[in-house]
Write a structure and sequence with these properties.
This is Sortilin N-terminal domain-containing protein. InterPro entries: WD40/YVTN_repeat-like_dom_sf. The protein is mostly beta strands and about 220 residues long. The chain folds into 2 domains: about 15-50, no CATH class; about 60-220. The chain contains no helices and 18 strands. It has a 4-stranded antiparallel beta sheet with strand order 1-2-3-4, with no helix packed on it. A 4-stranded antiparallel beta sheet has the order 5-6-7-8, with no helix packed on it. It has a 4-stranded antiparallel beta sheet with strand order 9-10-11-12, with no helix packed on it. A hairpin with a 7-residue loop joins strand 13 (about 160) and strand 14.
Length: about 220
Protein backbone atom coordinates (compact mmCIF):
# COMPACT_ATOMS: atom_id res chain seq x y z
CA UNK A 1 0.00 0.00 0.00
CA UNK A 2 1.24 3.45 -0.87
CA UNK A 3 4.05 2.49 -3.27
CA UNK A 4 2.41 4.27 -6.18
CA UNK A 5 0.12 7.30 -6.38
CA UNK A 6 -1.66 8.96 -9.27
CA UNK A 7 -3.53 12.29 -9.42
CA UNK A 8 -7.33 12.16 -9.36
CA UNK A 9 -8.09 15.89 -9.23
CA UNK A 10 -8.46 16.50 -12.96
CA UNK A 11 -11.39 18.85 -13.53
CA UNK A 12 -11.48 20.27 -10.01
CA UNK A 13 -10.42 23.67 -8.76
CA UNK A 14 -6.86 23.92 -7.41
CA UNK A 15 -5.53 24.49 -3.88
CA UNK A 16 -7.07 21.57 -2.03
CA UNK A 17 -7.74 21.92 1.70
CA UNK A 18 -10.15 19.18 2.78
CA UNK A 19 -11.18 15.69 1.70
CA UNK A 20 -14.09 13.54 2.87
CA UNK A 21 -14.22 9.82 2.05
CA UNK A 22 -17.51 7.99 2.36
CA UNK A 23 -16.88 5.22 4.94
CA UNK A 24 -19.41 3.00 3.16
CA UNK A 25 -18.19 3.74 -0.38
CA UNK A 26 -14.51 4.78 -0.79
CA UNK A 27 -15.16 5.85 -4.39
CA UNK A 28 -17.45 8.61 -3.12
CA UNK A 29 -15.26 11.63 -2.30
CA UNK A 30 -15.92 15.29 -1.49
CA UNK A 31 -13.03 17.69 -2.15
CA UNK A 32 -12.92 21.11 -0.47
CA UNK A 33 -10.76 23.62 -2.32
CA UNK A 34 -10.34 27.32 -3.10
CA UNK A 35 -13.20 27.11 -5.59
CA UNK A 36 -15.70 25.49 -3.23
CA UNK A 37 -16.69 21.82 -3.36
CA UNK A 38 -16.25 19.06 -5.96
CA UNK A 39 -17.85 15.60 -5.64
CA UNK A 40 -16.97 12.30 -7.30
CA UNK A 41 -18.75 8.95 -7.15
CA UNK A 42 -16.19 6.96 -9.15
CA UNK A 43 -12.93 7.55 -7.31
CA UNK A 44 -11.99 10.77 -9.10
CA UNK A 45 -12.47 9.81 -12.75
CA UNK A 46 -15.33 12.30 -13.00
CA UNK A 47 -16.05 15.27 -10.77
CA UNK A 48 -19.16 17.38 -10.23
CA UNK A 49 -18.42 21.05 -9.52
CA UNK A 50 -21.04 22.27 -7.02
CA UNK A 51 -21.89 25.81 -8.13
CA UNK A 52 -25.19 26.47 -6.37
CA UNK A 53 -23.69 26.94 -2.90
CA UNK A 54 -22.87 30.49 -1.78
CA UNK A 55 -19.25 30.00 -0.69
CA UNK A 56 -16.53 32.64 -0.50
CA UNK A 57 -13.60 33.73 1.65
CA UNK A 58 -13.51 37.52 1.85
CA UNK A 59 -10.21 39.22 2.67
CA UNK A 60 -11.11 42.93 2.66
CA UNK A 61 -14.22 45.08 2.17
CA UNK A 62 -14.66 48.54 0.67
CA UNK A 63 -17.67 50.70 -0.16
CA UNK A 64 -18.67 53.83 -2.06
CA UNK A 65 -20.85 56.81 -1.14
CA UNK A 66 -23.89 56.06 -3.30
CA UNK A 67 -27.39 55.57 -1.92
CA UNK A 68 -27.79 52.69 -1.55
CA UNK A 69 -24.05 52.24 -1.24
CA UNK A 70 -22.18 49.56 -3.18
CA UNK A 71 -19.89 47.05 -1.51
CA UNK A 72 -16.57 45.80 -2.91
CA UNK A 73 -14.67 42.77 -1.71
CA UNK A 74 -11.59 40.70 -2.46
CA UNK A 75 -12.06 36.93 -2.52
CA UNK A 76 -9.55 34.16 -1.98
CA UNK A 77 -8.48 32.93 -5.42
CA UNK A 78 -11.61 34.39 -7.01
CA UNK A 79 -10.75 38.00 -7.75
CA UNK A 80 -12.49 41.21 -6.69
CA UNK A 81 -16.20 41.94 -6.99
CA UNK A 82 -18.68 44.76 -6.46
CA UNK A 83 -22.41 44.86 -5.90
CA UNK A 84 -25.25 46.80 -4.24
CA UNK A 85 -25.91 46.68 -0.50
CA UNK A 86 -29.65 47.06 -1.14
CA UNK A 87 -32.04 47.39 -4.06
CA UNK A 88 -35.44 48.83 -4.90
CA UNK A 89 -36.21 45.79 -7.07
CA UNK A 90 -39.00 43.51 -5.85
CA UNK A 91 -36.87 40.43 -6.54
CA UNK A 92 -34.05 41.66 -4.29
CA UNK A 93 -30.33 41.54 -5.02
CA UNK A 94 -29.55 39.07 -7.82
CA UNK A 95 -26.36 37.36 -8.94
CA UNK A 96 -26.27 39.52 -12.08
CA UNK A 97 -26.19 42.67 -9.93
CA UNK A 98 -22.62 41.81 -8.95
CA UNK A 99 -19.74 42.55 -11.31
CA UNK A 100 -16.12 41.42 -11.63
CA UNK A 101 -13.36 44.05 -11.40
CA UNK A 102 -10.17 41.96 -11.41
CA UNK A 103 -8.61 38.54 -10.85
CA UNK A 104 -6.08 36.80 -8.65
CA UNK A 105 -6.41 36.55 -4.90
CA UNK A 106 -8.56 39.64 -4.43
CA UNK A 107 -7.52 41.75 -1.45
CA UNK A 108 -8.18 45.46 -0.94
CA UNK A 109 -10.80 47.35 -2.95
CA UNK A 110 -11.11 51.07 -2.17
CA UNK A 111 -13.38 53.57 -3.92
CA UNK A 112 -12.55 57.21 -4.64
CA UNK A 113 -14.77 59.17 -2.17
CA UNK A 114 -15.53 61.81 -4.81
CA UNK A 115 -16.08 59.45 -7.77
CA UNK A 116 -17.76 56.07 -7.30
CA UNK A 117 -16.68 55.05 -10.82
CA UNK A 118 -13.01 54.88 -9.78
CA UNK A 119 -11.95 51.84 -7.76
CA UNK A 120 -8.48 50.86 -6.58
CA UNK A 121 -7.98 47.14 -6.07
CA UNK A 122 -5.08 44.75 -5.73
CA UNK A 123 -4.23 41.08 -5.72
CA UNK A 124 -1.31 39.17 -4.18
CA UNK A 125 2.00 41.02 -3.79
CA UNK A 126 0.19 44.28 -4.59
CA UNK A 127 -0.85 43.77 -8.18
CA UNK A 128 -2.46 47.21 -8.02
CA UNK A 129 -4.86 48.58 -10.62
CA UNK A 130 -7.32 51.43 -11.02
CA UNK A 131 -10.67 50.23 -12.37
CA UNK A 132 -13.08 52.53 -14.24
CA UNK A 133 -16.73 51.43 -14.04
CA UNK A 134 -17.69 53.64 -16.99
CA UNK A 135 -15.56 51.70 -19.46
CA UNK A 136 -15.34 48.47 -17.40
CA UNK A 137 -11.58 48.37 -17.68
CA UNK A 138 -8.63 48.47 -15.29
CA UNK A 139 -5.17 50.02 -15.60
CA UNK A 140 -2.10 48.72 -13.79
CA UNK A 141 -0.60 51.35 -11.46
CA UNK A 142 1.68 49.20 -9.29
CA UNK A 143 4.44 51.49 -7.94
CA UNK A 144 8.05 50.66 -8.68
CA UNK A 145 11.22 51.75 -6.92
CA UNK A 146 13.20 54.79 -7.97
CA UNK A 147 16.23 54.36 -10.21
CA UNK A 148 19.37 53.00 -8.50
CA UNK A 149 17.30 52.00 -5.47
CA UNK A 150 16.12 48.51 -4.45
CA UNK A 151 12.66 47.68 -5.82
CA UNK A 152 9.67 47.87 -3.55
CA UNK A 153 8.72 44.67 -1.79
CA UNK A 154 5.09 44.09 -0.89
CA UNK A 155 3.20 42.00 1.61
CA UNK A 156 1.01 39.20 0.23
CA UNK A 157 -1.99 41.27 1.39
CA UNK A 158 -0.66 44.81 0.85
CA UNK A 159 -2.80 47.64 2.28
CA UNK A 160 -4.38 50.33 0.12
CA UNK A 161 -5.81 53.46 1.71
CA UNK A 162 -7.61 56.45 0.19
CA UNK A 163 -7.84 59.49 2.41
CA UNK A 164 -11.36 60.93 2.87
CA UNK A 165 -9.79 64.39 2.97
CA UNK A 166 -9.27 66.45 -0.20
CA UNK A 167 -7.61 65.84 -2.56
CA UNK A 168 -8.02 62.17 -1.54
CA UNK A 169 -4.40 60.99 -1.90
CA UNK A 170 -3.98 57.25 -2.43
CA UNK A 171 -1.53 55.38 -0.18
CA UNK A 172 0.04 52.00 -0.91
CA UNK A 173 2.14 50.29 1.75
CA UNK A 174 5.32 48.46 0.76
CA UNK A 175 7.52 46.53 3.20
CA UNK A 176 9.16 49.55 4.82
CA UNK A 177 7.66 52.53 2.99
CA UNK A 178 4.35 54.23 2.30
CA UNK A 179 3.98 55.29 -1.34
CA UNK A 180 1.57 58.20 -1.67
CA UNK A 181 0.05 59.36 -4.96
CA UNK A 182 -1.89 62.60 -5.26
CA UNK A 183 -2.85 62.03 -8.90
CA UNK A 184 -5.21 59.03 -9.00
CA UNK A 185 -2.43 56.57 -8.31
CA UNK A 186 -0.31 57.65 -11.28
CA UNK A 187 3.27 56.57 -10.75
CA UNK A 188 4.67 59.79 -12.25
CA UNK A 189 3.37 61.83 -9.30
CA UNK A 190 4.07 60.13 -5.99
CA UNK A 191 5.85 60.59 -2.70
CA UNK A 192 7.63 57.76 -0.90
CA UNK A 193 8.00 57.92 2.87
CA UNK A 194 10.28 55.41 4.57
CA UNK A 195 8.90 54.10 7.85
CA UNK A 196 11.35 51.30 8.69
CA UNK A 197 14.87 52.62 8.22
CA UNK A 198 16.70 49.34 7.75
CA UNK A 199 15.75 46.47 5.49
CA UNK A 200 15.81 43.14 7.31
CA UNK A 201 15.92 39.62 5.83
CA UNK A 202 12.96 38.63 8.02
CA UNK A 203 10.81 40.72 5.64
CA UNK A 204 9.06 43.15 8.02
CA UNK A 205 6.15 44.84 6.31
CA UNK A 206 3.39 47.34 6.96
CA UNK A 207 0.03 45.64 7.49
CA UNK A 208 -2.39 48.57 7.79
CA UNK A 209 -2.59 52.26 6.89
CA UNK A 210 -5.32 54.79 7.78
CA UNK A 211 -5.84 58.47 8.51
CA UNK A 212 -5.03 59.63 12.02
CA UNK A 213 -8.30 60.31 13.84
CA UNK A 214 -7.43 63.79 15.06
CA UNK A 215 -4.92 64.86 12.40
CA UNK A 216 -6.46 64.91 8.88
CA UNK A 217 -3.08 65.47 7.20
CA UNK A 218 -1.34 62.60 8.97
CA UNK A 219 -1.60 58.85 8.66
CA UNK A 220 -1.31 56.01 11.15
CA UNK A 221 0.67 52.90 10.20
Amino acid sequence: MGKKFKPISGGTHGDHHALWIDPKNPLHLIDGNDGGIDITYDGGRNWNDIQHMALAEVYQIGFDMRKPYYVYCGLQDNGSWGGPSATYEYSGIRNEDWYFIGGGDGFYAQVDPSDHNTIYRNYQMNGLSRYDLRIKRGKTIRPIGMQKEPPYRFNWNSPIHISPHDPHPTSVCADDEVVISRMNGNISNRDSRKIIHQRKPAFPSIKRCEDAKFHPNKQEI
